[in-house]
Amino acid sequence: MSYTARVLKQAVEKNPNEPEFHQALTEIFTTLQPFIDSHPEYEKAAILERLVEPERVIMFRVPWVDDTGNIQVNKGYRVQFNSAIGPYKGGLRFHPSVNLSVIKFLGFEQTLKNSLTGLPIGGGKGGADFDPRGKSDREVMAFCQSFMTELFRHIGADTDVPAGDIGVGGREIGFLFGQYKRIRGCYENGVLTGKGINYGGSLIRPEATGFGAVYYTAEMFKHFGDEIKGKTFVLSGFGNVAWGSALKITELGGKVLTLSGPDGYILDEGGVNTEEKLSYMTEMLASRRNLVEDYATKFKVPFFVGQKPWKVKGDVVMPCATQNEVLMEDAKHIVANGTQYYVEVANMPTSNDAVEYLKEHVRGVAPSKAVNAGGVSVSALEMSQNSMRLAWSQEEVDAKLKVIMKNIHDASAATAEECGFGYDLFAGANIAGFMKVAEAMMQQGIV
Questions:
Q1: pTM for this predicted structure
Q2: What pLDDT is attached to residue 284?
């Protein structure tokens, strides 16, 4: 049994009932195996055994009082996965689906993603099984204050810098930061990213993941001698990630055909491409109804109840919602539609078997850990601005983001080619991200 296969088997056995974590490990280890097997120094240093174990796992109760005066209790998490190349960095997710497996898979992926950015940030992730949907502002504030009352002792600008994720937007970051400031008694605005512009946030942070995904896609298109202009895009989700993607796709001459939510998807043959439609996406998110049907009602386009958009024909498919939203059956529909490019934007949106099927049948396939790194990249740029007590213009931040995404694509493509994988962006991203973390771990000793 190879070194990677043995460590993967041990990790699965030691972490039972964590399917999302197992899936992430399997996808990454499968592509790493040929590379690692040719570098015995990694086995000697037990790099993989150390890499799959988080440096620290924090779990805690979060009690809070709802608007009826009843006490509610949720479970909170922070997994500080790897700090070999910088302080832990990764979002907080508030959603009923949050559990230890989800947070560990996200933290593990975040470690390699952050490595790919070229910025000095390690990997971490956190959140709670709290659902902000349908809650009043006072209830969300009460929860966030209770959550931070425990979390504050584990984070800091040089230790661990959380940000937003699903269910954690500007409102939640504001409440979390306010409680941190109150407890600490000082203004450490580098402790959280995704903050409001008027208290240390960065311009284009809400759009960053979507913008970065499209910049990465444009680089992939260049490899094939293609361009975004004139292409049709099938997107899932309608939050900040889908919104940022739709904005940039429209700017570059593409057309977005679909958006989706937990209630179904809309099909806009004319394109989600006017200022009114794009602005309405932010209104939908701000309403906290979490319904994409509102778009169909307002703009009189078809709405498909309880369905995913993967049967819609488009040149490019970009899942922008959540993990495992594209399974093998969906992948077969995507291929049958003649899709040319498949670009993961959400974290691990595709099952492992579906990824392999798409790689065999679609012209270009790109992995989430590279594609969606724009969000954490601008978060790291926010940290830089906080450290320097400066605020960069939108043009400055956007230009830096574009360079980062080009570098991520180019490093992934070059690494894949050097390691004999051809233009396999999954293999390239996994190996390039791993190499930097592994070398830093080896240089720092057995810690």
A1: 0.96
A2: 95
